[in-house]
Design a protein that fits this description.
The protein has helices at 14-18, 22-40, 61-72, 91-95, 110-120, 124-139, 147-163, and strands at 4-10, 52-59, 80-84, 101-109. By secondary structure, the protein is an alpha/beta fold.
Length: 172
Amino acid sequence: MNNQQLQITVEDERWLQALPEVEDLSSEVADKVLAWILSHEDLDLFHLNLPLFINLSLSNDEQVRSLNKEYRGLDKSTNVLSFANIDDEDFLAECELYDEIQLGDIIIALETMQREAAEQEVSFRDHYCHLLVHGLLHILGYDHMEAEEAAEMEACEAAILQLMNIKNPYED
């Protein structure tokens, strides 16, 4: 499997109180996602045999709201934002020029995530794993803008979460 490096920035220290094992857990989730993708998809970027870098920012509603407004024109917070480099049309060509692949950035908002976990009656840990899986799939090229894409992405999320003994978040 390609070597992956998850670069974690804790922008809000409350993350370490809410989920003390967040750094180890994040690496475990990234490993599971990449292993699952490698065994189920034939993505061109894996053929380059270069290390994969992922930037993860553990943030808060205020910062995510600001980013959401700046980049998506939405003046509100959201649970997770993903900025996927794979979406750039010259991504693969540019990867071949370097000795690593920068997959993109994932930013997760603490308060929105906490609120959603409570509303959905799921553990904070499980909801965090779900949102990180979701963000990682986005930076690997998955999307949910169309119904067919959404169904495929949700099925991938459920399969990966099952590997971690986490209930399918899309089941009633």
